[in-house]
Amino acid sequence: MNIRVLFVLLVCLIQPSFAADSKSTLLGPIDGTSKILGGVEAAPGAWPWIAAVLYADVPDTYNAQFCSGVLIEKSWVLTAAHCVQGLSTNDIQIAVGAYDLNTFIGGRTPVKKIVVHPQYNSLSFNNDIALIELSYPSSIQKISLYSGQSNDDTPSSLLSKIVTVLG
Fold first, then answer.
1. Domains of the chain, each with CATH number or no CATH
2. Residue 75's closest CA among 111, 102, 106?
3. Best label site of 64, 71, 77, 145, fewest CB within 10 Å?
4. SS3 state at 22
C-alpha cells in the first residue's frame, strides 16, 4: 500500500464516532487526568495541519467537534467518509490547527463542498475517505505528504519510521 495513503488513513480514521450517531451523544469536557493509553500530549503547534470537523450549529468548539481530518492543501481537508455522509456544507465547519478545543480562539471555516468517495460503502467502510473544500484557503501550514509512486522509490529517510496517530 502506498505509504502516503497508509499515513493519511491512520491520521484521519482514528476517530471512531459516526457522524449520524455522534451529535446525539455529545459529551461534556473530560477531566484533566484522562489519558490515551500510551499517548503523550503534543506540544502546541506541533501538528498545525490537524483539522477538527465541527457541527456548525454548536457554538462551543469543544462540543461541536465530532471527527478529525488533515489539511492537505490550502483549501482541502481529508477526512473519513463516515464523518460527513448525509451532511451538507451548511451542517459543518472546520477548525484547522486547534491545539486545545476547550481554549481554541481561532476561526471556524465554512465549507464550500463535500466530496465522498464514489464507492464508499457505509456497511463495510470500504473507501471510507472524503474531501472537504473550505470556503476560503487556510493560512495554516498543510501537511507534507510523501509523493512517491511506489515503495521502490521510498526515500531512505522514511524507511523504518514510526507512524504517529493524532486525534
1. 3-17+46-144 (2.40.10.10)
2. 111
3. 145
4. helix
